[in-house]
Amino acid sequence: xxxxxxxxxxxxxxxxxxxxxxxxxxxxxxxxxxxxxxxxxxxxxxxxxxxxxxxxxxxxxxxxxxxxxxxxxxxxxxxxxxxxxxxxxxxxxxxxxxxxxxxxxxxxxxxxxxxxxxxxxxxxxxxxxxxxxxxxxxxxxxxxxxxxxxxxxxxxxxxxxxxxxxxxxxxxxxxxxxxxxxxxxxxxxxxxxxxxxxxxxxxxxxxxxxxxxxxxxxxxxxxxxxxxxxxxxxxxxxxxxxxxxxxxxxxxxxxxxxxxxxxxxxxxxxxxxxxxxxxxxxxxxxxxxxxxxxxxxxxxxxxxxxxxxxxxxxxxxxxxxxxxxxxxxxxxxxxxxxxxxxxxxxxxxxxxxxxxxxxxxxxxxxxxxxxxxxxxxxxxxxxxxxxxxxxxxxxxxxxxxxxxxxxxxxxxxxxx
Length: 416
Prior knowledge:
- By secondary structure, this protein is α/β, with parallel strands linked by helices.
- Strands 1-2-10-7-8-9 form a six-stranded mixed β-sheet. It has a four-stranded parallel β-sheet with strand order 5-4-3-6, sandwiched between helices. It has a four-stranded mixed β-sheet with strand order 11-12-13-14.
- The chain starts with 5 loop residues before the first strand and ends with a strand.
- Strand 15 and strand 16 form a beta hairpin.
C-alpha cells in the first residue's frame, strides 16, 4: 500500500526516473492511500464496531472502500448520483444501502451528494469517506512520498491524464508545494482512440502544459518498457515518450514519469503481436520476427505425417509408441479419423505413478486423454499457418497439432 518504487529508466539512450504506481495511483485505487488513514484517525476519537457504527461513502469509486470496511461496521450507506451505473451492483453485493441524489443538484444544496452524506454521518459513531476529499488527501500523500524518494533537483513531472487524474483536486498544487513552484507538471493525453476519433482537449487546472501523443507512438513506447521488465500500459508509454522527447530537445533535464497503468489491462491488445498485426501497429521487433522467417509457413518445414491412435487404443500400446518413438504427445482419433483429443506422455506417467501399470494397461486411452470441448475456443493450425504466427502460438502452448482447414483431421505434430 503506497511506497511504490522510484526507478531509473533508459529509453532511446535517454534516462529519466519512473514512479512505478501501476494500478496504485491515487485516481485508480484511492483506498490504497486514504481509507486506512481515515479509519485510523477516526478510531482515535471513536470506536467503529459491528454493533452500532456506520460508514457513509460517496463517489463512483466507493466500492473499493466498502470492500475494506464491510465486515467491520453495522451499516454502510453509499451516496451516489442517479446517473451512476458501474459501481451500483458491486456496492449492493457488499451489503451497502444505496442512497441516490439528483445528478444536477447544486453543490451547495441540501440534496447534493456531499451534504446528504454529511447528514447521514452526523452522529458520533459514523465515518464519512468523501471521494472528493479523499483525492486531495491522496494527492498530498503521493506528492510527499515522491519528494522523499527524490535525491536530485527535479524540474519536470509527467503524468498521464487518462485515468481520471483531475489536477483541480490539488495534484499539481501538491507537487509544486513539495518540489517548488518552478516545477513543470506536464499532462499527457493520447489524442486518438482505437476508432480514430480525435479527443477534445480538456481545461486542466494547475498543469503547466498538456501534450498529445498518438496511439501508435504510445504503443511503441509501452512495448519498449515491457521489454525492459516494466509491465506498464499504454498510458505510461505515452508519458515515457513525452519524457524522451523533452530531454532530447533540451526542454527538461531531470524528469520523473508516473507509470499509472498495468500491462495486465492490455493482454489482448498491445501485448499481443497478433493484435498489433491486425491493427497495423507492427513494431520493429514484430517486423524482425516476420522477416526472420522470410514468410515461411508450416508446410515449408516438411513435417512427417502425424502418428495418431484410435480412442479404443490400450494404454500400454500408447505408452510403447510414445516411448519407442520419443513422442511427448499423440493425437487421438475416432472411427472417422477425426481428432477428438490428445494424450501426453507426462500425464500418463503421472497417473501410472499413482497406480500400478497392471491396473490401467488394458484400459482404453479415451479414459485418459484430453478431450476437445465444443464450448472451448481453439486456434486452427494448418500447413498454411505462417511460422511467425506459430511462434506466437507457442508463447502459451507447448505443441501444435496441424490439421486441415476444418480443424478435424490431424496431419502433423510440431513442437518447439
